[in-house]
Amino acid sequence: MKVAVFNTKRYERPVLEKSADGFPIEFTFLESRLDVQTALLAAGHEAVLIFVNDVANRSILEQLAAGGTRFLATRSAGFNQIDRQAACELGITLAYVPAYSPNAVAEFTIGLILTLGRHIHEGHNRVRRADFNLEGLCGFELRDMTVGVCGTGRIGTEVVKLLSGFGCKILAYDEEPNEQVMLLASYVDTREELFRYSDILTLHVPLMPSTYHLIDNEALKLMKDGVFLINTSRGALIDTPAVVEGLKSRKVGFLAIDVYEEEACLFFEDHSSDIIRDDTFARLLTFPNVIVTGHQAFLTMHALRNIAETTMQSLDEFAKGFPCTHAVPAP
């Protein structure tokens, strides 16, 4: 089976190749993202693998189908970049990786909280300049905080487990509470309650119409002054201009994000010699109480192996005509 892999990075190619040992698969690795201009590169490939910032809307899926593609898998847990209805109509089977390593993202989330809450990044930068002054580096202890976890699926549950070791009060919200979290956290009935009572709020929900700009001006009004926001899920959960205004007014005391709504034109590439044209993103980088990382929360060897192995399983099932274990849910 010929498989086109879009948005290929050097760190994942050997993992994918190793996981394909013993499978009759011929990879075509492409560095470019899948979009309307690059879709033609998949012609003649029965399967296509994409990543979070590739585009798989109706017009692109039509191009893929016309070129012979019958299977498309995203190497991620999120699949909001895919037009599922169009894929269904075109007869393209969809697959994803529902749980490559929830712990990887959960640990990274805790790392962001500790780094920003204790000014570790600033302390590190000062020492590199031989500046050992501690002024402005006074932080807080997690045990004194109320941490709100919005979404207690696989990743949110792991975050709750890790937070429980710090002795902080943990609140949680999910439309489907789970028993594991109930042992360690107190569920609230509404998101509004979570927003109102949390000193620290971390987001672990998928991007859907109901969660688009979950954190907007109205949500911020409910929150405590100086609230600490963390987003390691999907960029569009946050209305970034609203949060920038919150930072300026000090309504938002700290912000740590590993995802950004307009990240497709920025993340996963080296732009160190470029001028960043996104004024909102550039403004974020000027705040001393903000940490931005480039969608790296998932990036561990454990996660890369799981992504590759799950994707190979889906390709094998498709090739053999079996139902796909990790099929993207129907629209």
CATH topology of the largest domain: Rossmann fold
Helix amount, in percent?
Answer: 25-40%
Report the count of strand segments.
Answer: 12
Percent range for β-strand residues: 5-15%
Q: List low-confidence stretches.
A: none
Strand order, biggest sheet? 8-7-6-9-10-11-12
Using only C-alpha atoms, the radius of gyration works out to: 21 Å
CATH class of the largest domain reads Alpha Beta
CATH superfamily assignment of the largest domain? NAD(P)-binding Rossmann-like Domain
CATH architecture annotation of the largest domain = 3-Layer(aba) Sandwich
Q: Element order, helices and strands?
A: EHEEHEHEHHEHEHEHEHEHEHEH
Shape: globular
Major sheet summary line: 7 strands, parallel
End-to-end distance, in Å? 27 Å
Number of domains: 2
Tell me the number of helical segments per DSSP (H or I, 4 or more residues long): 12
Q: Structural class, judged by helices and strands?
A: alpha/beta
Mean pLDDT: 95
Structure description:
The chain has 331 residues and is of the alpha/beta class. The chain has two domains: 2-100 and 300-319, NAD(P)-binding Rossmann-like Domain (Rossmann fold, 3-Layer(aba) Sandwich); 102-292, Rossmann fold (3-Layer(aba) Sandwich), CATH 3.40.50.720. The chain is 34% helix and 15% strand. It has helices at residues 13-19, 58-66, 84-90, 102-117, 120-128, 154-164, 179-182, 191-197, 217-222, 240-249, 279-284, 301-319, and strands spanning 2-5, 26-29, 47-50, 71-74, 93-95, 146-150, 169-173, 186-187, 200-203, 227-231, 252-257, 290-292. The strands form two sheets. The protein has a seven-stranded parallel sheet with strand order 8-7-6-9-10-11-12, sandwiched between helices. A five-stranded parallel sheet has the order 2-1-3-4-5, with helices on both faces. Helix 1 links the parallel strand 1 and strand 2. The model has no long low-confidence stretch (mean pLDDT 95).
